[in-house]
Amino acid sequence: MRIPAHSVCTAIRDDIVAGVYERGSRLTEELLARRYGVSRVPVREALRTLEAEGFVVTRRHAGACVAEPTEQEGADLLEMRMLLEPLGASRAAQRRTEAHLKVLRGLVRLGQERARRGNSEDLRSLGGWFHETLAQASGSPALTSMLTQLRHKIAWMYVVDAPANPAESWAEHGAIVDAVARGDGERARAITALHTERSGAVHRLRFTSGQDRADRVRTSQHPVNVTGLQH
To answer: What gap in Å lies between CA 74 and CA 157, rounded to an integer?
Structure first.
């Protein structure tokens, strides 16, 4: 496989998230350069970027290795997302474009349709696209970048179970878009906060303390009542 040099960082990150490289394993420049069909220079730059993002660590006598994050670090990621996702939704209510709204509404329609059919794989992809678009609608490149990094690391560290009621989850997405479309930042923030809080309950750590375990990490037991939030 050969890819452009500027895509090396993305490719290595994607392979780490997908589990191609095991936690703690060495990442040698020579082997990576051969795998991605580039010289060692862009590989070296990519490893520095991935170290800053927390996917890679440099160890004495071993060099670059895949990081081994702890259970606490995983919990911190979910907490950070609970703070930043609502902020992004609030800003989207003030800064979104008609193009953003069109995409968001289209994703909600597809999500609600797939929820009725029970297609969980499609729902997972659609949910990711929805939150990525919502972040972009915030009009803040820095916030969008932080949320993107959070999603990558959460996908790496957690298995996400299908929600017990997918239709209700997509009703929440729809309510967020309605608030964003009306320019109601406070309502967009509130619904997104509750939605993010509940979604944390279906995340299971892939690993803790170097061992693969399925300990459930729940940020809340409280259900989201979208109806109660509606005016």
So the answer is: 7
Nearest to 91 by CA among 222, 189, 21: 189
Q: Output b/e per residue, 5-24; b: 16+ Cβ within 10 A.
A: eeebbebbbebbbeeebebe
Confidence (pTM): 0.79
Element (H, E) at 64: strand 63-66
33-37, 55-59, 125-129, 207-211: segment of lowest average pLDDT? 207-211
Number of alpha carbons in the 13 Å side-chain half-sphere of residue 3: 15
Count Cα atoms within 13 angstroms, Cβ side, for 2: 3
Q: What is the pLDDT of residue 226?
A: 39
DSSP 12: H
How many Å apart are CA 180 and CA 185, to the nearest integer? 7
Instruction: List residues bridging with 26 in a β-sheet.
Output: 65
Q: What is the CA radius of gyration of the chain?
A: 19
- AA letter at 118: G
- Cα 231 from Cα 180, distance rounded (Å): 14
Question: Which pLDDT band holds residue 196 (cuts at 50, 70, 90)?
Answer: very high
The token pair that represents 121 in the structure block? 């794989």
Mean per-residue pLDDT, 101-115: 96
Q: How many CB atoms sit inside 10 A of residue 201's CB?
A: 19
